[in-house]
Fold these 3 entries.
Entry 1:
Amino acid sequence: MDDAVAAASRSGIARTTRDERADRLEALADALEADRADLVAIAHDETHLSTARLDGEVTRTAAQLRFFAGVAREGGYLEAVVESPDPSLVPPRPDLRRILRPLGPVAVYAASNFPFAFSVLGNDTASALAAGCPVIVKAHPGHPELSRATAALAAAVLPAGWFGLVEGMDAGVELVRHPGVRAAGFTGSVRGGRALFDLAVSRPDPIPFYGELGSINPVVVTRQAAAERAAEIGTGLVGSFTRDAGQYCTKPGLVIIPAGGGVEEAARAALGDAPASRQLTPRMADAFADGVEALAARPEVTVTRGSGGDGVSTPTIVSVPAGAFLADPETFLAECFGPVTVVVSYADDELDRILSALEHSLTATIHRGSGEDVTALAERLSGIAGRLLFDGWPTGVAIGWAQHHGGGWPATTASVHTSVGATAIRRWLTPIAYQDAPQEVLPPELRDGNPLGIPRRES
Amino acid sequence: MDDAVAAASRSGIARTTRDERADRLEALADALEADRADLVAIAHDETHLSTARLDGEVTRTAAQLRFFAGVAREGGYLEAVVESPDPSLVPPRPDLRRILRPLGPVAVYAASNFPFAFSVLGNDTASALAAGCPVIVKAHPGHPELSRATAALAAAVLPAGWFGLVEGMDAGVELVRHPGVRAAGFTGSVRGGRALFDLAVSRPDPIPFYGELGSINPVVVTRQAAAERAAEIGTGLVGSFTRDAGQYCTKPGLVIIPAGGGVEEAARAALGDAPASRQLTPRMADAFADGVEALAARPEVTVTRGSGGDGVSTPTIVSVPAGAFLADPETFLAECFGPVTVVVSYADDELDRILSALEHSLTATIHRGSGEDVTALAERLSGIAGRLLFDGWPTGVAIGWAQHHGGGWPATTASVHTSVGATAIRRWLTPIAYQDAPQEVLPPELRDGNPLGIPRRES
C-alpha cells in the first residue's frame, strides 16, 4: 500500500500536459479494445453477465476513456479566468488568474455491476487521470481476475506511478486513511460507501469522498399516459428492471401507476418473457431473495414471479396499493439489488402523499400523455432527482457534457458533484489563484495571449 | 430553530428568477450603505476595529452583494449545457440538458474578524442567496448587536423566509444537525470548524460543510529580493501582519528570509511605528498572549516587541534560525491570531527542508528579485497554496471571477471550493440533467433558442 501511494506521489502526472494525458487515455482505450475477446471471456466467467452485454460495456468503457481524453484536450474543464488589474474597485483588484489543478493521488473503489465501465479503468479512473491525478484502484472482489487483467493493460500503457491496484478489504480501509491519498471515488452499496465515507471524513485531514450509493429511481405514470399506452409502458418497465438481472444503480425500483390503468396487467403479462439470470455473486442472489421475501411479507402485497430456475434470480413484481405503501414506506423504498420492482397503485388523491415519501435518487422518470402538461409533477420530482427523464427508462446512462449521475443522500455522499459526464473531472481538482505572477511562473493556460487557445474567461 | 428552518423551506426563493434575486441583493447593498454610519458605530463598539477600517468593510460588503447580483444576472454560473440527441454514440445519447439548481436552506456561521464582509450579510450569505438558497445565519457572539442590526436590514429588504438569524452555541449545533438544512458555510478557527464539520458529516444524511479555518500564509523572500529591497520588504511585512491587530485569516504568520539579508533588521526597525490595537475580544487577546509566550519559550528564539499598552496586543516579531524551526515545526506553524509573525532565517541549503515542513495555507507569497526566475519555488508552493502571490502581501482579498480563497486542510474543510469570488456560488448548487424533457418543463435557461441569452455550452 505504502509502495503504491509512494509511486503515485512520485509519478509526475500532475506536471504532464493535457495532450500527453489524452494520448495515454486513448492508448488505454485502444488496448482495452484490442484485448476485448479475452477480457470479455474472463468477465463472463466471473460475473455471469452476458457476453453481449460485456462486449457492449467494453465499447462504452473505451468511449469513456476517449471522451475524457477529449475533455482534457479541450481544456475548458480548467475553468481558467484571467482578470487584469483594476485599482478603481473596492478592494482594488490586482492581476488575478485562476485555474484548477489536480488534487493528488486518488483512491477508486470499483463497482461490482459494471466490471469495465465503473471498475478498474472506468469513469472514476478515466476522469482522475484526465485531471492529472494518479489513481490507485481497490479491486472489487467480484471480478479479481478481470481486475488484474485490466490493471496489467494499464501498467503496460501508462508511465510508472500513474496507476496502481490493491485488493482486499483491509487494503481498502488502509487506502482511504493513507496520508498520501487526497480524494476517493466509490460506487457501491449504502453500507459500504457510508463506512468508507466515515473513514475519509474522520481523518486528521479530511479528504473529499465521492460515493455513488443506493437509489430507488421512482417512475411516475400519469393516468393519461396509462390510458394511451399501458401495454408499451408495462413491457418497457419489465425490460428495464430485469435487464442484466436488475443489477443497475439506475434500475426503476418503484413504479407509481394509476390504479386500474392497465399498466400493471401489461407488466405482469410481459414478465413471463423476461429472462431469469444469475446474479453477480451468490451473496447478492441471497440478498435479493431476502429482500423480495421481506417485501412479500407485508400486508396487502401481491407478488408476481416470472420464470426461474436453479441458481438464477426470478424476475419479480411486487404490487402494493398506495395505502399499504404509505403505512410503511421505508420497507418499500429499501433498494433491493436484482430483478424486482415495486409497483404502487394510486387513486388520484393519493399521489401527493406518495411523492412526499420519496428520498433522493439518481433518477426520476415521468411517463406522460401526449401533450400533457406535467410541469408541477416535474418540479416536484426535480427536487429529489439527479436526472429527470420523460417517457423512457433510466437504465442506460449516456456520456456527455450534459450528463449528471448523482443526487442527494442516499443516492450519493456528495450531491454537489457527478460520477458520469464531463464534469466528473471537477471532483479531482482544486482551484489556485495567481496574483501578480510573472509570465514564466504561470501555467501556459493562464499566460497572456492564451497561447494554448483554451476556452477561458477574461475581463 | 425549527421555525427559522421551516420558514426557509417555505420561502420559495428557489423558484424566483435570477433577476429577482439580483434586485434583492442590490437593495440589500443599498440598505447597508444607507445605514453605514449607525452600523459602523455599533461595530466599532463591539469589535474595537477602527471606524476607517469598518467603513471600508461596509463598502466591500456592499460591493460583494452587488457582485453576486451580477453573477446571478449573467447566468454563467449555472453551467448550462444543451446536447442534442445522437443515436450514433455508444451508448446512444438522448436529448440531454444540464443545469445547476439550489441545494436548499444553507446555514452560515459568521466570522468574528470581518463583522460585515464575512458575517451576517457577508460572502456566504450573498453567494447562497444569489444561488437561490435561503440562509440562516448563526451570529458570531463577538458582535451581537451588529448582527441583529444587519439582520433587521435583511428582514426589511428580503421576502419572508429568505433570511433568518439564530444566536448561541446550542443553536449553532442544532442548526448543522437540522434535517431541513442542506449545506453549511463557516469562517473561524480550526477547532470550531472541525467540531461543526464532524457534526455535518456524521448526520444520517451528511451535508456539505464548507469551513474556512486556519492558515499560516508563508512568505518566502529570495536572497536576491532581500539584496534589492530589504527595507521595503521589512516595512511591508510589519504593515501586513499588524494590520487591524493581525486579525486576518490571510495574515503572513511565517516569513522565510535569507539569513543576513537585512530583512529582519528592517522589520524590527519598522515595528516601533506599528500601532498596538485592542483585539476583537478579551479571550482572543489572552490566546494571543499565550501563543506568543509559547513561541518565545522555544530555544534560540529572539522576540522583538513594538509598543504596547493597557488592553492592547503588542505587535511582536518572533525570530528563529532554520535549525530551531526544523527541530519543532509544529510549534512555529500553529496559527496565532493577532499581531505576531514568525521570521525564519535560512542558509541557502536549508530552504528546501523548511518548505517541506509547510502545511496547506490560504495563501503563499514569494518576494523575488528583479527578473529572477522563481519557477521552481513557485511550483513548490503552488502545491500548498490556494492563492500564490508575488512581491506583495496576502492581506487584502480582491473580489472577482479569478479569486480563490481556499486550500487544503487545515486551511479549509473542502479544498475543492472557495469562499470568496464568483465561484463561491458553486458550493450551494447541485446539478440536474433533463432527459427528453418537454420544453415547458425545462428551466428557461435550458429551452431551445436560449431565450434568456445566458452563456451555455451546446453540442
Entry 2:
Amino acid sequence: MHIVVDREALKEAVNQVSKAVSSRTTIPILTGIKLTATHEECILTGSDSDISIQVSIPAQRDDIELIKVVKIGSIVLPAKYFAEIVKKLPAEHIEIEVLENEVTHIRSGSTEFNLNGLNAEEYPRLPQLEEDQVFSIPAQLLKSLIRQTSFAVSTLESRPILTGVLLKLEEGLLTLVATDSHRLARRSAQVEVNHNLYLENVVIPGRSMNELQRILEDESDPVDIVITNNQMLVKAGRLLFYSRLLDGTYPDTERIIPSTSKTTLEVETKALLAAIERASLLAKDSKHVVKLSIQEERIHISSNTPEIGQVFEQVNAHHIEGEEIQIAFNARFMLDALRVIDSPQVSIQFTGALSPFVIKPTDHEHMLHLILPVRTY
Amino acid sequence: MHIVVDREALKEAVNQVSKAVSSRTTIPILTGIKLTATHEECILTGSDSDISIQVSIPAQRDDIELIKVVKIGSIVLPAKYFAEIVKKLPAEHIEIEVLENEVTHIRSGSTEFNLNGLNAEEYPRLPQLEEDQVFSIPAQLLKSLIRQTSFAVSTLESRPILTGVLLKLEEGLLTLVATDSHRLARRSAQVEVNHNLYLENVVIPGRSMNELQRILEDESDPVDIVITNNQMLVKAGRLLFYSRLLDGTYPDTERIIPSTSKTTLEVETKALLAAIERASLLAKDSKHVVKLSIQEERIHISSNTPEIGQVFEQVNAHHIEGEEIQIAFNARFMLDALRVIDSPQVSIQFTGALSPFVIKPTDHEHMLHLILPVRTY
C-alpha cells in the first residue's frame, strides 16, 4: 500500500474508528487500525469485537483530491501511536507507504516515521449482513432517543440482558426501553419504514448505544439501521457502526407500568430538578434517599444525613390532584430522568408510597420514566 | 453569627479559600471553612496547615450592600458541603444563622439547610507576621515567573529542599529557581522594593507556588509579598495567601550553569517544540530519550522504540556556530522548558555531549533553562 492522503480527512477518520479500539483487548491485532486503499477510497476499520466502526475516505470530495493512490493494499497500524502521530504531523498531506515486513513509512513535511505494522490478512472480517430488516431515522433524533434511555441500563452483570437497551418497532413506531429493575426509561418516535417491518427483543449493549450516540453527528440527515439475528449496523454516510446484539429474552416491562394514578402533579422540570439537586447534596447514604411530600398545594422535598445536616425544599406545583402522599426515592434516579426531559413541564403520577411512580413530559406522549420508591416512612 | 450575604460574592470567596482545604487532612477542623462576621466585613479562611487562604467580603462594594450583619460571630462549616450548597442556592441572597450547638441554618429563596458546624475557637490561628521584609510585583508577572519555573521542582522526597522553589532578591532583582537535579529553570524580573531588601535561601514549596499561580488573577495590579523566617504571605487585594517555607539550605545552582559554549544554535521555539513533541511520541522508554544532532546547518531529531518504530525530524536553524554535536536528552524536560518560553526564538548552548546544556530566549536575559543530557552514544 502506498498513498498520499489529506491530513484533516485522515485525522477525522482515525478519530472516529479509534472509538471502537480498546487498549484492553486480548486480541493483539485489535489494538490496531486497519487501512485499506483501493483506487476509489481508503477504508479505515477499528474494532473491539463487540463494536466495529468503519469509515471510508473518498478519493475526491467537492472537487478536492483527498487521496492519491500509488499502490493499493492494506496494513494494520497500532491505533494509539498512529492516532497521535496523525494529529501532530506538520504538513497538509501525509504519505503512507508499506515497506518490507509491514514496516510502514509515514512522511509529512520534514517529518518521517517508521511504524511497525501488522499483516492486514490477520484482521478479523466484519460481519456480512443481510439487509432485509432496515429502517431510517434522523441522526439527531436517534441521538436523543439513546441519550434519553441508555442511562437507565443496569451496570451489574447479574442479569446481563438488562445491560442492554431494548429496541422495538411496530407500525412505524420505534421504542427504546432501558431498565436496571429499580427505574425504567422508555422513549418512542415515528420512523420511516419501507415495508411493514416488525422488530421485537432486539437488545443492544448499553455501551454500544453510548458510543453510537457520541459518534453520530447532531444533524437531521437520516441514518439507516439494519438489524439481523445477532448484529445491528448503523449507516451514517461514509461511517458504518456495527454492534453485536445481546442474547436472551428482555423482560416484559409493560406490565409494571401502572395504568392508573392516585395522586398527580404537574411542575416545572427545571425547578424540580434544581430542588432535587440541592436535596441530593445531603443525601449521602448508599441509596441517596430524598423524601417528597405534598402539603397545601406545594411539593416539599427533604433529605437528611445526621452527621452532616438536613435540607428542606419547597417547589410550587402547577396542579395537584388526588390523595396526599409521602414518598422516598433515590435522588440519582430522579435526577437522571429529569435531566433528559427537554420539555418545560413534567407530570408525575403516584399510586402509593410503595408503588412505582411515573414521570412524563406534559407536552407529548412519547417518553416515560418510572422509578421504584424506597421504603423509609 | 447571623448574616445575609450576596450569593455571588460568597460563592467567589468560598471558591478561593476552598483551594487551601484538603480532604486528606488529619486535623478534622481543617476540613472546614471558617467564617467570621464583623460589622465591616465577613472573613473566610481555608487552610491545610501548609497553605492558608483568607478572603474578606466587604460590607459594601461599589455602593452595593454585600453583607447585612444581624449578629457578629464565627463558625466553621464543612468545606465540601458548604461550597456545593452555596453554588446551588436559588436566590440572590443567602442568610446564614448559627443556632445552638453550632448547627447553622442556611436559607435562600424557598430552600433551607441545617448544616452541622464546628466551634470556630478551635480553628488554628493564622501566623502573625512582622511585615518588615516586603516587596511588590504585578500579579500577572508573578504568575509568569511561577509558571516558568515551578514545573522543574523535584517530586521526590529524597531531597525535600528540591521540592521547593528558591526565591532570591538582590538589588531589586527577583529570581526564582527550581531544579530536580536533572534540569533547572531560572527566571528573574525587576520588582519594586522600598528599602535595600536582600533575600536569600527563601524556599517555597512547589505546591504552594502552583496554588498561588492558580488563585492569582491575571491582572497588572501589584501584589505585596511579605517574607519572614518561616512564612511567606502574598497580599492580593482582599485575598491573603500564606505558605510555610521549607527548612534547609538550597544548593548553590549557579556553579553548575556553564559560562562558555562549544556549540550554539538559534531556532524558532514553536518549530523545535513541535518536532520534539512528535519525536517524543516514540520515546517510550523510562527516560523518554530523544537524540539531537547537527548536520549541514540543520537540526536532526530522532527517537526510537524498537518494538514500535522510529521517528526522524529536521528543523531549520537560524544560526549554528561551533562544533558538531550529537546529544541525547529526556524529551519531557525539553518540552517543559520550551512550553514556558513565550519568546519566538530560543538559543541553545552546548558544551559537549555529556555536559548540561542551556536554553534561553533570544530576546531577553531573564530566563534560563538547563538540561542534563542522557548518555546513549
Entry 3:
Amino acid sequence: MKTLAVTKINKIRNAKRASYDENTIHTILDQGLIAHVAFSHDGDPICLPMVYGRIDDKIYIHGAKATRMFKQLKQGIPACLNVTLVDGLVLARSAFHHSMNFRSVNIHGTAHLVEDEDEKYDALVAITDHMMPGRWDECRDMTKKEANATSVIALTIEQAAAKCRSGMPVDDDEDYALDHWAGIVPITTQFGEAINDDQLRDGIPVSPSIEKITGPTR
Amino acid sequence: MKTLAVTKINKIRNAKRASYDENTIHTILDQGLIAHVAFSHDGDPICLPMVYGRIDDKIYIHGAKATRMFKQLKQGIPACLNVTLVDGLVLARSAFHHSMNFRSVNIHGTAHLVEDEDEKYDALVAITDHMMPGRWDECRDMTKKEANATSVIALTIEQAAAKCRSGMPVDDDEDYALDHWAGIVPITTQFGEAINDDQLRDGIPVSPSIEKITGPTR
C-alpha cells in the first residue's frame, strides 16, 4: 500500500474525510464514469466533463486535436481533474448539517501530451475499456487516420487525494431530541438494458461486454 | 423564451450540440445534484464538487467561511461551473465513434459574495430545496450562528451554454455493414429507500419531502 505525499496543493482541510492512499484513489477513479477537468484559458478557468481511463498512476483523456481544450492542455499547463461518486443524500435535523455521502478524487498536476505511439494506443484502449470493460476488442480496428486525429493527454496521479463522506447525519447534540426526521437517502447509478442501434444489421447479438453489465438487448 | 448571447467564452465549437436557450439551461441545472466549480488558486486550477441551488438567473453555492475555496471566490474572481447529467453510453462499431449521451451546462462568470441578508437566506433555502424539494421547511430553524458561519457565493447565468448529445451512435457509412454490435446503454440515477438515522427517536415517520421521491423508510 502506497501513500501519496501531502503537499500544499493536495492537502484536504477536513482531515477525517481525507485519504492519500493510492488504492483508495485508484478504486474511486476506476468506478467513475466521467471526470471534470479544469484548466485556465486566457486567464479564465474552464471546467469540462470528460471520459477517461487509468493505467497504473496515469490518467488519460482524449479528444479531437482541433478543440480549444486539447490545444491548451498539450502545452503542458496546470490542470485539475476531479471524479466524484455521489452515494446519497444526508438529511439532518438542521438544514446546516445536511450533506451528501460521496467519494471524490482530485488530481493536480501538469497535463502533458502523450507522444509515444504505444502509450497513446494503450491509453485509447484504457479510455474505451473504462467506459465498458472489454469493449475495445469488440470494435473494428482503429485506423491510422483516427489515431492521427486524436490527442491523448496524461496526468500523473501524484499530487492527489481522495475525500469521502459516508454514514448518518451528524447533528448538534441538542437536536437529537427534536421531532424532525433525519436519515439518508441512497443514490445509485444504474445501467439499463442495451438498446440496439436503429441501423443494426439483423441477427447481431448484443456483445459480451455489454451483456455483462446489463440485461439482454431489447 | 430567452436566448443567451453567444460570446467567445460560452461558444460551443460543435454547433449541433449547443443550446443557448435559457429554459434548456435552467432545466438541466434543476435536474442536477452536484456542480463542479473551477477557479484559480495561486495560479493553479482547482475543480471541486459542490451542491448548489438556483433562483431565476443566479446559481448559488455555499460553504464554511474558513475554506480555501470561499476565501478565494468571495474576492470576485473568475469561475466556471459545470453541471453534467449522464444519460447513457453510446457504443459504436468503431471505438473512435464511441460517445456518451449527456446534458451539460457551463456557466462562466465572476463569482461574488452574497452580502444581502435576505438574498443569502433565500439562497440557503434554494440550496437545501434543490437537494430535496420542500426539505427546508421540515428542518429546525437556522440559527444566527449558523448563518454567520456560512458564506454564499453567486454566479449569474449569463455567459452560459448547454451542450447535449442524445440518440444512437453515428458510425462511418461503410461501418454499418460490419458485424459489430452497436447501440446505447441508458444510465439512470435513482434514489433508494430512505434509511432512518440510527439515533432517530421512536415514532417519527419519514417526512413528506423524502416520501415524495422514495418509498417508505425501512
